[in-house]
């Protein structure tokens, strides 16, 4: 049985018109596996992530964790059985409470693990595991850099001893020198604990470093999936090939690949360019 199984998932938002952010996506993750979901901003990656952890209610399809439906989060505290699903958000400034010391926030994760019968740990241990000194345990979030705050958010999630970790663009707010290091750290720490990791990003170069399998998402749909090396080296879908081609390669002149035109993108789906916003 897969740790996580998503079948024909759809997520819709209703306003003046219905927006179908996720359109029939299926995926699975096993324990000890890193699966990446890549695509441009607005393609539905975050909506899918929020549905996986129960922050959005599926319009269609299902999300199952260890064979059980993931309940939508409400005003009550999540049941102990599902605190083994944890999420790391894109912006640590909004996910960390500025009025609570970082050690106390990590202790919330530790408490969740203890309610599931796991042995007690200390906040200092988790700070050190994400590369921060134990001596900062009583400091507040505002005294850290953006990259350090993201490491604290990761420490808090890992302190809950999750079986499934969902990371929604966890490195996009970091400087370029930190992105690969933080991504590789997340892979290492997740796999050390035997957890599955769903790593969501728009950066295919970083994904190539850490993911066992990669799914490419475009306009709410998965257009290609497979082993990461195969997706990288043997891309079948034109959109995937455009992502790979857009990764800068030094040429000594500072030239970058040109973005695909509207007509080229429309041709991927055999439609007229004017209909691209409906794909």
TrEMBL record:
InterPro entries: AAA+_ATPase, ABC_transp_ATP-bind, ABC_transporter-like_ATP-bd, ABC_transporter-like_CS, Oligopep_ABC_C, P-loop_NTPase. GO terms for molecular function: ATP binding; ATP hydrolysis activity. SMART domains: AAA. The keyword ATP-binding applies. Keywords: ATP-binding, Nucleotide-binding, Transport. CDD domains: ABC_NikE_OppD_transporters. It comes from the Bacteria. Residues 4-244 form the ABC transporter domain. Belongs to the ABC transporter superfamily. PANTHER family: D,D-DIPEPTIDE TRANSPORT ATP-BINDING PROTEIN DDPF-RELATED (PTHR43776:SF7), TRANSPORT ATP-BINDING PROTEIN (PTHR43776). This is Oligopeptide ABC transporter ATP-binding protein.
């Amino acid at each position: 049985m897969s740790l996580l199984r998503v079948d024909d998932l759809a997520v819709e938002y209703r306003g003046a018109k219905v927006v179908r952010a996720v359109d029939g996506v299926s995926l699975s993750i096993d324990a000890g596996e890193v699966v990446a979901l890549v695509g441009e901003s607005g393609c539905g990656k975050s909506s899918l992530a929020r549905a996986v952890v129960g922050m959005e209610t599926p319009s269609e399809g299902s999300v199952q964790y260890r064979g059980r439906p993931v309940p939508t989060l409400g005003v009550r505290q999540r049941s102990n059985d599902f605190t083994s699903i944890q999420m790391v958000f894109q912006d640590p400034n909004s996910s960390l409470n500025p009025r609570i010391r970082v050690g106390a926030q990590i202790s919330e994760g530790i408490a969740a693990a203890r309610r599931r019968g796991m042995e007690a740990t200390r906040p200092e241990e988790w700070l050190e595991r994400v590369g921060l000194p134990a001596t900062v345990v009583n400091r507040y979030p505002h005294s850290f850099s953006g990259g350090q705050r993201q490491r604290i958010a990761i420490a808090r999630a890992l302190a809950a001893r999750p079986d499934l970790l969902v990371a929604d663009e966890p490195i996009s707010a970091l400087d370029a020198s930190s992105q690969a290091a933080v991504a590789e750290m997340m892979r290492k720490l997740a796999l050390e604990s035997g957890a599955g990791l769903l790593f969501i990003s728009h950066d295919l170069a970083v994904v190539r470093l850490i993911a066992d399998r990669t799914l490419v998402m475009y306009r709410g749909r998965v257009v290609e999936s497979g082993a990461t090396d195969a997706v990288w080296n043997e891309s079948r879908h034109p959109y995937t090939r455009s992502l790979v081609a857009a990764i800068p390669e030094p040429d000594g002149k500072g030239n970058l690949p040109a973005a695909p035109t509207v007509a080229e993108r429309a041709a991927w789906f055999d439609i007229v360019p004017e209909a691209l916003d409906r794909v």
